[in-house]
Amino acid sequence: MGIRLQEGNDQICWSLDGERDFSVAGTRRNIDAFLHTGSDMGTLWCNAVPKKVNVFAWRVMLDQLPTRYNLSCRGMEIKSILCPTCGVGMETLSHALFASCFAKEVWRNIYRWCNISMLIGESFCEWSEWCDLLPTRNNRRLKMQVIGLATCWMIWRFRNSVLFDAGRMRKSDIVHNIILLSFSWLAHRNKKCKVSWVD
Ligand SMILES: [Zn+2]
């Protein structure tokens, strides 16, 4: 193969996606296109939420959170696989974040706050796919992605508080905290997104 040398200064260019300049979004598209071909789930990285929440979301999408059911499937001996929040259902990921009475009540309140009249689903992937269909106008899509992430994050934190912190987090504060957290992430972590309490 012949090498053609050109006049000019040396420069570094990114050759993976033909864009020449490196970008996280381009790399993500590349990973989705070539490494996740067997999965219909793309990667999700939302700049408007903290890194730890993105990592949390990734674990949710892969069903890798240490729910009691998942721990028992991995051979860990645990006293009960019942949900620590309600004590009724088996604590699978879907139960913990969406299907338990507690999670449903939280989501109902979030739906009401966001004026959503339909049931979107009982998994994070369904929520995420629904968000992907929303218009980007007025950052509607981003806002709903952030609100969904804040909701899952707070429900999981509440569950951990019940298990490891003697339930110090109050159930009645959860929805209020989700609203505060969503507003704070959108207002302070994303310069392009203008939010006000009216939104
Ligand atoms: Zn439960």
Automatic annotation (TrEMBL):
Q: Which InterPro entries match?
A: RVT-Znf (IPR026960)
Supply one GO molecular-function term: RNA-directed DNA polymerase activity
Which key words tag this protein in UniProt? Nucleotidyltransferase, RNA-directed DNA polymerase, Transferase
Asked if the keyword Transferase belongs to this entry, the reply reads yes
Using the record's annotation, list all stretches that form the Reverse transcriptase zinc-binding domain.
40-107
UniProt signal peptide? none
Q: Identify the Pfam families for this entry.
A: zf-RVT (PF13966)
Q: What is this protein called?
A: RNA-directed DNA polymerase, eukaryota
